[in-house]
Amino acid sequence: MDCLFCKIAAGEIPSTKVYEDDTVLAFNDINPEAPVHILLIPKQHIASMAEINEENSAVVAHIFEVAAKIAAEKGFADGFRVVSNCGDSAGQTVKHLHFHLMAGRDFGWPAG
Ligand code: AMP
Ligand code: ZN
User: Fold this and answer.
1) How far is the CA of 74 from the centre of ligand 2 (A)?
2) Is the CB of 71 under 6 A from ligand 1?
3) Does the predicted model carry a pTM greater than 0.85?
4) How far is the C-alpha of 38 from the C-alpha of 16, rounded, in Å?
5) Per-residue pLDDT for 77 more than 90?
6) Which residues on neighbouring strands pair with residue 37, listed in sequence order?
7) Minimal-distance CA residue to ligand 1 atom 13
8) Does the CB atom of residue 89 touch ligand 1 within 6 A?
9) pLDDT at 1 over 80
10) Which residues carry out catalysis?
11) CA dist., res. 66 & res. 72, Å (int)
């Protein structure tokens, strides 16, 4: 499958790793929108949040544990944002499930 984040998960394309275990990889976003901008992905291919189901949701729960751990380790436990864009109209450009973990500045709502 020609999937950028599958290739990053497999180590075929380099990334700046922040965290890795058997099922999850976290790496710095190449085009950061905040001082801290990390992408958390399942190593298995899940196309988007729309594809989360009973069979694969355990890894998503694990991703959220990892996100909280990373935020705490970096000193942002009381102020960070996690976002997943799902589908073209929401701005999803890479069709492999990922969560943006952003911190280090104030954020507007619902955008910015
Ligand atoms: P989205 O637009 O929500 O699908 O997010 C995709 C994200 O992947 C964007 O924030 C990009 O900057 C980021 N990105 C694209 N290619 C790479 C790469 N090779 N390494 C790290 N981040 C990337
Ligand atoms: Zn993939």
Assistant:
1) 27
2) no
3) yes
4) 9
5) no
6) 102
7) 29
8) no
9) no
10) 98
11) 10
